[in-house]
Write a structure and sequence with these properties.
Elements lengths: L1 E10 L2 E4 H12 L7 H9 L4 E4 L3 H4 L4 H28 L8 E6 L8 H9 L6 E6 L5 H15 L4 E9 L11 H9 L2 E9 L15 E9 L7 E6 L2 E6 L3 H18 L10 E4 L4 H11 L7 H10 L6 H12 L7 E8 L3 E8 L1
Parallel strand pairs: 4-5, 4-6, 11-12
Antiparallel strand pairs: 1-7, 1-8, 2-3, 6-7, 8-13, 9-10, 12-13
Helix pairs in contact: 1-2, 2-7, 4-5, 8-9
Length: about 350
Protein backbone atom coordinates (compact mmCIF):
# COMPACT_ATOMS: atom_id res chain seq x y z
CA UNK A 1 0.00 0.00 0.00
CA UNK A 2 0.99 3.61 -0.55
CA UNK A 3 0.97 6.01 2.38
CA UNK A 4 0.13 9.66 1.75
CA UNK A 5 2.62 11.33 4.05
CA UNK A 6 1.63 14.97 3.46
CA UNK A 7 -0.60 17.24 1.38
CA UNK A 8 0.05 20.96 1.06
CA UNK A 9 -1.96 23.48 -0.93
CA UNK A 10 -0.96 27.01 -1.94
CA UNK A 11 -2.80 29.81 -3.70
CA UNK A 12 -1.79 32.51 -6.15
CA UNK A 13 -0.96 35.86 -4.50
CA UNK A 14 -3.83 38.12 -5.62
CA UNK A 15 -7.19 37.48 -3.90
CA UNK A 16 -10.36 39.07 -5.22
CA UNK A 17 -14.06 38.93 -4.48
CA UNK A 18 -16.20 37.38 -7.19
CA UNK A 19 -17.85 40.71 -7.95
CA UNK A 20 -14.49 42.32 -8.71
CA UNK A 21 -13.65 39.51 -11.11
CA UNK A 22 -17.06 39.80 -12.77
CA UNK A 23 -16.45 43.49 -13.41
CA UNK A 24 -13.04 42.73 -14.92
CA UNK A 25 -14.53 40.08 -17.21
CA UNK A 26 -17.26 42.49 -18.32
CA UNK A 27 -14.60 45.00 -19.34
CA UNK A 28 -12.34 42.55 -21.16
CA UNK A 29 -14.66 39.90 -22.61
CA UNK A 30 -17.90 41.67 -23.53
CA UNK A 31 -18.31 44.09 -26.44
CA UNK A 32 -18.52 47.74 -25.47
CA UNK A 33 -22.03 48.60 -24.32
CA UNK A 34 -23.16 44.96 -24.22
CA UNK A 35 -25.86 43.79 -21.84
CA UNK A 36 -24.03 42.06 -18.98
CA UNK A 37 -27.01 40.48 -17.25
CA UNK A 38 -26.19 36.98 -18.51
CA UNK A 39 -22.59 37.36 -17.28
CA UNK A 40 -23.76 38.54 -13.87
CA UNK A 41 -26.19 35.63 -13.63
CA UNK A 42 -23.50 33.07 -14.52
CA UNK A 43 -21.03 34.48 -11.99
CA UNK A 44 -23.63 34.62 -9.20
CA UNK A 45 -24.74 31.06 -9.96
CA UNK A 46 -21.19 29.69 -9.71
CA UNK A 47 -21.40 29.79 -5.88
CA UNK A 48 -17.88 31.21 -5.73
CA UNK A 49 -17.22 34.01 -3.24
CA UNK A 50 -13.51 34.70 -3.74
CA UNK A 51 -10.65 33.54 -5.94
CA UNK A 52 -6.90 33.87 -6.13
CA UNK A 53 -5.24 35.03 -9.34
CA UNK A 54 -1.69 35.01 -10.67
CA UNK A 55 -1.79 38.70 -11.60
CA UNK A 56 -3.47 41.86 -10.31
CA UNK A 57 -6.83 42.35 -12.02
CA UNK A 58 -5.65 45.36 -14.01
CA UNK A 59 -2.83 43.38 -15.63
CA UNK A 60 -5.03 40.88 -17.46
CA UNK A 61 -6.18 43.34 -20.09
CA UNK A 62 -2.56 44.14 -20.92
CA UNK A 63 -1.49 40.55 -21.66
CA UNK A 64 -0.65 40.38 -25.35
CA UNK A 65 -0.59 37.01 -27.06
CA UNK A 66 -0.04 33.42 -26.04
CA UNK A 67 3.72 33.83 -25.62
CA UNK A 68 3.40 36.58 -23.03
CA UNK A 69 0.72 34.66 -21.16
CA UNK A 70 2.79 31.48 -21.16
CA UNK A 71 5.84 33.32 -19.83
CA UNK A 72 3.75 34.38 -16.83
CA UNK A 73 2.59 30.78 -16.44
CA UNK A 74 6.15 29.43 -16.28
CA UNK A 75 7.35 31.99 -13.74
CA UNK A 76 4.32 31.65 -11.45
CA UNK A 77 4.12 27.85 -11.77
CA UNK A 78 7.73 27.49 -10.65
CA UNK A 79 7.17 29.89 -7.74
CA UNK A 80 4.05 28.11 -6.51
CA UNK A 81 5.68 24.73 -7.09
CA UNK A 82 8.66 25.57 -4.91
CA UNK A 83 6.34 26.66 -2.11
CA UNK A 84 3.98 23.68 -2.35
CA UNK A 85 6.58 20.92 -2.66
CA UNK A 86 8.92 22.43 -0.08
CA UNK A 87 6.18 22.72 2.52
CA UNK A 88 4.80 19.23 1.81
CA UNK A 89 8.24 17.66 2.26
CA UNK A 90 8.78 19.57 5.50
CA UNK A 91 5.41 18.39 6.80
CA UNK A 92 6.34 14.79 5.95
CA UNK A 93 9.68 15.16 7.73
CA UNK A 94 11.60 14.49 4.52
CA UNK A 95 14.30 16.38 2.66
CA UNK A 96 14.32 17.17 -1.06
CA UNK A 97 17.06 14.58 -1.55
CA UNK A 98 14.70 11.86 -0.33
CA UNK A 99 12.52 12.28 -3.42
CA UNK A 100 12.86 9.52 -6.03
CA UNK A 101 10.06 10.57 -8.43
CA UNK A 102 8.60 13.99 -9.16
CA UNK A 103 5.40 14.13 -11.21
CA UNK A 104 4.06 17.54 -12.26
CA UNK A 105 0.63 18.00 -13.81
CA UNK A 106 -0.83 21.09 -15.41
CA UNK A 107 -3.22 21.94 -18.20
CA UNK A 108 -2.93 25.74 -18.16
CA UNK A 109 0.51 26.30 -19.66
CA UNK A 110 3.43 24.56 -21.34
CA UNK A 111 7.17 24.60 -20.79
CA UNK A 112 10.28 22.93 -22.19
CA UNK A 113 12.33 22.40 -20.11
CA UNK A 114 9.26 21.36 -18.17
CA UNK A 115 8.25 22.80 -14.81
CA UNK A 116 9.56 19.74 -12.98
CA UNK A 117 13.01 20.20 -14.56
CA UNK A 118 13.04 23.84 -13.45
CA UNK A 119 12.23 22.78 -9.88
CA UNK A 120 15.00 20.21 -9.40
CA UNK A 121 17.85 22.64 -8.73
CA UNK A 122 15.70 25.24 -6.97
CA UNK A 123 14.35 22.68 -4.51
CA UNK A 124 17.61 20.78 -4.07
CA UNK A 125 16.32 17.49 -5.49
CA UNK A 126 18.88 14.89 -6.53
CA UNK A 127 20.19 15.07 -10.10
CA UNK A 128 19.05 11.47 -10.62
CA UNK A 129 15.45 12.13 -9.56
CA UNK A 130 12.97 10.59 -11.99
CA UNK A 131 10.70 13.23 -13.56
CA UNK A 132 7.29 12.87 -15.18
CA UNK A 133 5.60 15.98 -16.62
CA UNK A 134 1.94 15.39 -17.50
CA UNK A 135 -0.23 17.64 -19.66
CA UNK A 136 -3.85 17.25 -20.76
CA UNK A 137 -5.62 15.53 -17.88
CA UNK A 138 -7.16 18.76 -16.61
CA UNK A 139 -9.35 18.57 -13.53
CA UNK A 140 -8.92 14.81 -13.15
CA UNK A 141 -5.13 15.04 -12.78
CA UNK A 142 -5.06 15.41 -8.99
CA UNK A 143 -6.78 12.05 -8.58
CA UNK A 144 -4.98 10.47 -11.54
CA UNK A 145 -1.66 11.73 -10.20
CA UNK A 146 -2.20 10.01 -6.85
CA UNK A 147 -3.22 6.86 -8.70
CA UNK A 148 -0.09 6.87 -10.86
CA UNK A 149 2.16 7.56 -7.84
CA UNK A 150 0.55 4.51 -6.25
CA UNK A 151 1.27 2.41 -9.34
CA UNK A 152 4.92 3.50 -9.25
CA UNK A 153 5.37 2.87 -5.54
CA UNK A 154 3.92 -0.64 -5.79
CA UNK A 155 7.01 -1.45 -7.83
CA UNK A 156 9.36 0.71 -5.73
CA UNK A 157 8.15 0.22 -2.13
CA UNK A 158 11.26 1.75 -0.54
CA UNK A 159 10.92 5.06 -2.38
CA UNK A 160 9.31 8.48 -2.04
CA UNK A 161 7.22 10.04 -4.80
CA UNK A 162 5.91 13.60 -5.04
CA UNK A 163 2.97 14.89 -7.07
CA UNK A 164 2.69 18.60 -7.87
CA UNK A 165 -0.47 19.94 -9.50
CA UNK A 166 -0.12 23.58 -10.52
CA UNK A 167 -2.81 25.45 -12.44
CA UNK A 168 -3.05 29.11 -13.43
CA UNK A 169 -6.51 28.95 -14.92
CA UNK A 170 -7.13 32.69 -15.06
CA UNK A 171 -4.33 33.08 -17.60
CA UNK A 172 -6.49 31.11 -20.06
CA UNK A 173 -9.46 33.51 -19.90
CA UNK A 174 -10.02 34.77 -23.44
CA UNK A 175 -10.36 38.51 -24.02
CA UNK A 176 -13.09 39.65 -26.41
CA UNK A 177 -14.81 36.25 -26.11
CA UNK A 178 -18.41 36.44 -24.94
CA UNK A 179 -19.13 32.74 -25.55
CA UNK A 180 -21.00 30.91 -22.81
CA UNK A 181 -18.08 28.51 -22.29
CA UNK A 182 -15.62 31.35 -21.70
CA UNK A 183 -17.99 33.20 -19.38
CA UNK A 184 -18.62 30.03 -17.36
CA UNK A 185 -14.87 29.47 -17.08
CA UNK A 186 -14.35 33.04 -15.89
CA UNK A 187 -17.01 32.41 -13.23
CA UNK A 188 -15.47 29.23 -11.81
CA UNK A 189 -11.73 28.93 -12.14
CA UNK A 190 -8.93 30.24 -9.95
CA UNK A 191 -5.18 29.80 -9.55
CA UNK A 192 -3.27 27.59 -7.15
CA UNK A 193 -1.19 24.49 -6.62
CA UNK A 194 -0.92 21.50 -4.32
CA UNK A 195 1.71 18.88 -3.59
CA UNK A 196 1.35 15.34 -2.28
CA UNK A 197 4.20 13.34 -0.75
CA UNK A 198 3.66 9.59 -0.94
CA UNK A 199 5.77 6.78 0.51
CA UNK A 200 5.99 3.16 -0.55
CA UNK A 201 4.99 0.35 1.78
CA UNK A 202 8.54 -0.23 3.04
CA UNK A 203 9.43 3.45 3.40
CA UNK A 204 9.25 4.58 7.03
CA UNK A 205 7.58 7.92 7.73
CA UNK A 206 10.02 10.14 9.59
CA UNK A 207 9.74 10.35 13.36
CA UNK A 208 8.26 13.65 14.47
CA UNK A 209 6.51 14.25 11.15
CA UNK A 210 2.90 15.34 11.04
CA UNK A 211 0.24 12.66 11.38
CA UNK A 212 0.26 11.07 7.92
CA UNK A 213 -2.69 10.87 5.64
CA UNK A 214 -4.51 7.80 4.40
CA UNK A 215 -3.20 4.78 2.56
CA UNK A 216 -4.13 4.15 -1.06
CA UNK A 217 -5.77 0.74 -1.40
CA UNK A 218 -6.73 0.70 -5.08
CA UNK A 219 -7.53 2.93 -8.06
CA UNK A 220 -9.74 2.79 -11.13
CA UNK A 221 -9.79 4.82 -14.35
CA UNK A 222 -12.80 5.25 -16.59
CA UNK A 223 -12.81 6.81 -20.06
CA UNK A 224 -16.26 7.36 -21.58
CA UNK A 225 -16.56 6.76 -25.34
CA UNK A 226 -17.70 9.53 -27.66
CA UNK A 227 -17.35 12.27 -25.05
CA UNK A 228 -14.20 14.01 -26.31
CA UNK A 229 -16.26 17.07 -27.20
CA UNK A 230 -17.57 17.88 -23.71
CA UNK A 231 -14.42 19.31 -22.10
CA UNK A 232 -10.95 20.47 -23.11
CA UNK A 233 -9.13 23.17 -25.08
CA UNK A 234 -9.19 24.53 -28.58
CA UNK A 235 -5.64 25.81 -29.13
CA UNK A 236 -5.61 29.15 -30.94
CA UNK A 237 -3.24 32.05 -31.56
CA UNK A 238 -4.51 33.61 -28.34
CA UNK A 239 -3.87 30.46 -26.30
CA UNK A 240 -6.14 27.92 -24.66
CA UNK A 241 -9.80 28.48 -25.56
CA UNK A 242 -12.03 26.48 -23.24
CA UNK A 243 -14.36 23.73 -24.45
CA UNK A 244 -17.05 23.19 -21.84
CA UNK A 245 -20.27 21.48 -22.87
CA UNK A 246 -23.50 21.69 -20.89
CA UNK A 247 -23.72 17.89 -21.14
CA UNK A 248 -21.06 17.29 -18.47
CA UNK A 249 -23.56 16.78 -15.59
CA UNK A 250 -25.54 14.37 -17.76
CA UNK A 251 -22.42 12.27 -18.38
CA UNK A 252 -21.88 12.16 -14.61
CA UNK A 253 -25.46 11.08 -13.94
CA UNK A 254 -25.29 8.40 -16.60
CA UNK A 255 -22.02 6.77 -15.52
CA UNK A 256 -20.70 7.63 -12.08
CA UNK A 257 -22.89 5.49 -9.81
CA UNK A 258 -22.32 2.35 -11.88
CA UNK A 259 -18.56 2.88 -11.88
CA UNK A 260 -18.35 3.66 -8.16
CA UNK A 261 -20.52 0.69 -7.21
CA UNK A 262 -18.47 -1.72 -9.31
CA UNK A 263 -15.21 -0.38 -7.93
CA UNK A 264 -16.37 -0.67 -4.34
CA UNK A 265 -17.91 -4.12 -4.85
CA UNK A 266 -14.55 -5.45 -6.03
CA UNK A 267 -13.28 -4.61 -2.54
CA UNK A 268 -16.28 -5.89 -0.61
CA UNK A 269 -17.68 -2.39 0.00
CA UNK A 270 -20.84 -0.39 -0.65
CA UNK A 271 -21.44 3.34 -0.78
CA UNK A 272 -22.81 3.28 2.75
CA UNK A 273 -19.42 2.04 4.02
CA UNK A 274 -17.58 5.15 2.84
CA UNK A 275 -16.73 7.53 5.67
CA UNK A 276 -15.63 10.47 3.49
CA UNK A 277 -16.04 11.52 -0.15
CA UNK A 278 -13.14 13.68 -1.35
CA UNK A 279 -14.58 15.15 -4.51
CA UNK A 280 -13.23 17.65 -7.03
CA UNK A 281 -15.31 20.90 -7.00
CA UNK A 282 -16.16 20.94 -10.69
CA UNK A 283 -18.95 23.48 -10.29
CA UNK A 284 -22.47 23.57 -8.83
CA UNK A 285 -24.20 21.53 -11.56
CA UNK A 286 -21.49 18.87 -11.53
CA UNK A 287 -21.51 18.60 -7.73
CA UNK A 288 -25.28 18.32 -7.72
CA UNK A 289 -25.02 15.54 -10.31
CA UNK A 290 -22.42 13.71 -8.18
CA UNK A 291 -24.55 13.92 -5.02
CA UNK A 292 -27.70 12.91 -6.89
CA UNK A 293 -26.20 9.99 -8.80
CA UNK A 294 -24.48 8.55 -5.71
CA UNK A 295 -27.44 9.37 -3.43
CA UNK A 296 -25.04 10.90 -0.92
CA UNK A 297 -26.26 11.92 2.53
CA UNK A 298 -26.62 15.60 3.33
CA UNK A 299 -23.28 17.20 4.13
CA UNK A 300 -21.19 14.54 2.40
CA UNK A 301 -19.70 17.13 0.04
CA UNK A 302 -19.56 20.07 2.47
CA UNK A 303 -15.75 20.34 2.31
CA UNK A 304 -15.91 20.40 -1.48
CA UNK A 305 -18.66 23.04 -1.58
CA UNK A 306 -16.71 25.23 0.84
CA UNK A 307 -13.55 24.93 -1.25
CA UNK A 308 -15.51 26.00 -4.33
CA UNK A 309 -16.84 29.06 -2.48
CA UNK A 310 -13.49 30.11 -1.01
CA UNK A 311 -11.10 29.57 -3.95
CA UNK A 312 -13.12 28.42 -6.95
CA UNK A 313 -12.16 25.49 -9.17
CA UNK A 314 -8.36 25.08 -9.27
CA UNK A 315 -8.50 22.36 -11.93
CA UNK A 316 -6.14 19.50 -11.01
CA UNK A 317 -5.09 21.05 -7.69
CA UNK A 318 -8.64 21.35 -6.34
CA UNK A 319 -9.22 17.78 -5.21
CA UNK A 320 -5.90 17.91 -3.35
CA UNK A 321 -7.02 21.05 -1.51
CA UNK A 322 -10.19 19.17 -0.56
CA UNK A 323 -8.09 16.22 0.64
CA UNK A 324 -5.93 18.56 2.73
CA UNK A 325 -8.99 20.19 4.30
CA UNK A 326 -10.60 16.83 4.99
CA UNK A 327 -7.48 15.66 6.83
CA UNK A 328 -7.18 18.90 8.79
CA UNK A 329 -10.80 19.51 9.71
CA UNK A 330 -12.92 16.41 9.16
CA UNK A 331 -10.54 13.48 9.46
CA UNK A 332 -12.61 10.28 9.32
CA UNK A 333 -12.24 7.51 11.91
CA UNK A 334 -9.02 5.54 11.57
CA UNK A 335 -9.32 2.39 9.49
CA UNK A 336 -12.48 3.42 7.65
CA UNK A 337 -12.65 3.54 3.83
CA UNK A 338 -12.88 6.71 1.78
CA UNK A 339 -13.13 7.61 -1.88
CA UNK A 340 -11.26 10.38 -3.68
CA UNK A 341 -12.70 11.17 -7.11
CA UNK A 342 -12.34 13.64 -9.94
CA UNK A 343 -13.41 13.97 -13.58
CA UNK A 344 -11.86 15.70 -16.54
CA UNK A 345 -11.26 15.87 -20.28
CA UNK A 346 -11.68 12.64 -22.16
CA UNK A 347 -14.38 12.65 -20.71
CA UNK A 348 -13.10 10.53 -17.86
CA UNK A 349 -13.20 9.76 -14.16
CA UNK A 350 -10.57 8.60 -11.68
CA UNK A 351 -11.49 6.81 -8.46
CA UNK A 352 -9.08 6.26 -5.57
CA UNK A 353 -9.99 4.00 -2.67
CA UNK A 354 -8.43 5.19 0.59
CA UNK A 355 -8.15 3.84 4.11
CA UNK A 356 -7.97 6.57 6.72
Amino acid sequence: MTRIAAVHGVLAPHRHAQREITDMVARTCLPAGADRRALDRLHRGARVDTRHMALPLADYAALDGFGAVNDVFIAEAVSLGIEAVGAALATAGLSPRDVDLLMVTSVTGIAAPSVDARLVGRLGLRPDVKRLPVFGLGCVAGASGIARLHDYLLGHPDEVAVLLCVELCTLTFQRDDASTANLVATALFGDGAAAVVACGARRTVAAGAAVPGPTVIATRSRLYPDTEHVMGWDISASGFRVVLDAAVPDVVRKNLAHDVDGFLADHGLRRSDISAWVCHPGGPKVLEAVAESLDLPGGALDVTWRSLAEVGNLSSASVLHVLRDTLAERRPPAGTPGVLLAMGPGFCAELVLLRW
